[in-house]
């Protein structure tokens, strides 16, 4: 197999798993946020009190999950005609990112944050499991 063919196959495989990898990042971040919330591990900042999530901050130093990541995932899924689960995970990621931006500026109760984290954790976990199933099925 030539280098260009191998590169094309690699890009196609990556485009099919990329949104699920982003969901896995969201899942890790949400899990850490849930743990911090339940253990009442907060940090005082200039803007207020935030959850202490050092592992998520470490990941954020290496890779910033944002609108460009989701745009790349959408572009790749359109270009390579991925499955419906791929597109639904991208829709979840768009909603999740908007949710993060909205709730950064709004002060809410601990129970509200807990419900939001749990709902997002279940949805992102579902998409991570779906991505693993799809990846294993293709092999």
Detailed description of the structure:
With 139 residues, the chain is mainly alpha-helical. It has one domain (3-138). The chain is 78% helix and 4% strand. It has five helices and two strands, in the order αββαααα. It has helices at residues 3-38, 54-62, 67-79, 84-105, 110-138, and strands spanning 42-44, 49-51. A hairpin with a 4-residue loop joins strand 1 (42-44) and strand 2 (49-51). The longest helix is centred in the N-terminal third of the chain and has 36 residues, at 3-38. It is elongated, with a radius of gyration of 17 Å. The model has no long low-confidence stretch (mean pLDDT 89).
List the secondary-structure elements in sequence, H or E: HEEHHHH
Bulk shape: elongated
What portion of residues belong to β-strands? Answer: under 5%
The N- and C-terminal alpha carbons lie at a distance of 18 Å
Number of helical segments with 4 or more residues: 5
Structural class: mainly alpha
Sheet with most strands: strand arrangement:
1-2
Number of structurally distinct domains? 1
User: What's the total count of β strands?
Assistant: 2
Query: In which range does the helix fraction lie?
Result: over 70%
List the defining traits of the structure above.
139 residues; mainly alpha; two-stranded antiparallel ribbon; 5 helices; 2 strands; elongated
